[in-house]
Amino acid sequence: MLRIADLHVYYGEIHALKGASLAVDKGEIVALLGPNGAGKTTTLKTISGLLTPRTGSITLDGESLVGVPSHQVVHRGIAHVPEGRKIFNRLSVVDNLELGAYIRSDGAIRQDMERVFGLFPRLRERRSQVAGTLSGGEQQMLAIGRALMARPRLLLLDEPSMGLAPVLVEQIFETVEDINRQGTPILLVEQNAAMALTIAHRGYVLETGSVVLEGPARSLAADADVRRAYLGEGA
Predict the structure, then answer these.
(1) C-alpha span between 97 and 229 (Å, rounded)
(2) Which of 7, 13, 75, 227 has CB 3.0 to 4.6 Å from 233, enough for a Cys bridge?
(3) Are 168 and 196 in contact, with CB atoms under 8 Å apart?
């Protein structure tokens, strides 16, 4: 489905991604792990058209995304939930969800909004509330729900657990699994490596812009270097 090969991305003279390659297949949750500054968010921004690679390829179902403007990437079937949520604070929950469907003109928008409310019942309770007054967890739910309103073929999630209480982290990750079971592949960037590897099928570890490890999630979770560096185990 998604294929990234030998991706090189720069911020000015700073070489942020150095030949990164990865893939997401249909039905998968793929975790992208690594320390701060490794290039995880840069990878998602490049996929979604917010950054342009200097070299390398990005394809979705065989069609190149390199050079495609970000709004057209959404039309191609990729929705991006950015780090920090980036909801429209002054608009209501319903208004935010409707904006997520801005590319659509079909008659199923209300049906998909009901799907979002089914995944996140708390949003139904707060449907008329101004988004900026929601709790952090509710804002994360709204950001994911807004992305789903585009009916994406691939969902990019950047740090969905950031700043959330443990009970909300569990709830968010359970819902991410539900979204995947309903048929949406997910590329997940997450600092909580233990949680990410619990729900992912496969994973990649980025360090200083390069993929240094990849494999099934269970194998990565059992890897001594991963356990020491990202799961807080060992000396």
Answers:
(1) 38
(2) 227
(3) no
In the chain, what are the domain boundaries? 1-77+153-235, 87-151
* CA 235 – CA 146 distance, rounded (Å): 42
**In whole angstroms, what is the distance from residue 132 CA to residue 130 CA?**
6
Residues contacting 181, CB < 8 A, separation 6+: none
Asked if residue 210 lies in contact with residue 19, where contact means CB atoms within 8 angstroms, the answer is: yes
Token digits for 102? Answer: 């801005």
On the question of pLDDT at 9 being above 70, the answer is: yes
User: Amino acid identity of 142?
Assistant: L
Chain length of the chain: 235
Written as one string, the DSSP assignment of 90-117 is: TSBHHHHHHHHTTT--SS-HHHHHHHHH
Q: Considering the domain 1-77+153-235, what is its CATH architecture?
A: 3-Layer(aba) Sandwich (3.40)
Task: Give the pair of three-digit tokens for residue 231.
Answer: 């799961």
pLDDT in tens, 109-126: 999 999 999 999 999 999
